[in-house]
Amino acid sequence: GAGVSQTPSNKVTEKGKYVELRCDPISGHTALYWYRQSLGQGPEFLIYFQGTGAADDSGLPNDRFFAVRPEGSVSTLKIQRTERGDSAVYLCASSQPRTGGGELFFGEGSRLTVL
Amino acid sequence: AQSVTQLDSQVPVFEEAPVELRCNYSSSVSVYLFWYVQYPNQGLQLLLKYLSGSTLVKGINGFEAEFNKSQTSFHLRKPSVHISDTAEYFCAVSGNNFNKFYFGSGTKLNVKP
């Protein structure tokens, strides 16, 4: 059964390095979301794609964060010049807004640790 | 803007006891409301949702929640919990376009034998 797949599951990097996190959504889901979850917090919205375009990127914290979804399926979250404060679990979710009634399907997350 | 408050960060309860996990939201527009559960080492999954209609919503695993517009609340309840209900529970709110979901900080339910 193909759920939402996120890779890597764990990533340890050094401050200042570049990181890419990948999300493979459920086939046919047009909506894709990235969230960030810090320790003891709920998921925090980063960006929402409808198809290939970023319909709402108001949650990206600064210009070091960027996300793409070039073919309307797989998405990559890119973080430049990583900082220790970027350490968190990055969650991806997909949905089918027209028929899914708002249900989000989440991956297991990518845990990013910036040393 | 919308926000969600889950006042209880942890709720310990004995097996077979009833439980209520509280959720309050703020919004200037109509909202849709959700409860998600996260079991250890798993992704979040939907428990139940309120979109419209009956304010009492039933979900999976015997959970239910009641939408109270005047109190801006969407509390989650279960009359008798099991050890397997031990997990973290998140309340979430969305506008009617599902562009953005706001999550609470979560409540860890710890069911003791």
Description:
The complex is a heterodimer of chains A (115) and B (113). Chain A has one helix at residues 97-100, and strands at residues 5-7, 10-13, 19-24, 31-37, 44-50, 53-56, 65-68, 75-79, 88-95, 105-106, 110-114. With 115 residues, chain A is mainly beta. In chain A, the strands form 2 sheets. In chain A, strands 2, 4, 5, 6, 9, 10 and 11 form a 7-stranded mixed sheet that branches. A 4-stranded antiparallel sheet of chain A has the order 1-3-8-7, with no helix packed on it. The radius of gyration of chain A is 13 Å and the shape is globular. The longest helix of chain A is centred in the C-terminal third of the chain and has 4 residues, at 97-100. In chain A, 3% of the residues lie in helices and 48% in strands. Chain B is mainly beta and 113 residues long. Chain B contains no helices and 12 strands. In chain B, strands 2, 5, 6, 10, 11 and 12 form a 6-stranded mixed sheet that branches. Chain B has a 4-stranded antiparallel sheet with strand order 3-9-8-7, with no helix packed on it. A two-stranded antiparallel sheet of chain B has the order 1-4. Chain B is globular. Chain B starts with a strand and ends with a strand. In chain B, 36% of the residues are buried. The model of chain B has no long low-confidence stretch (mean pLDDT 93). The interface between A and B is medium-sized, with 29 and 27 residues.
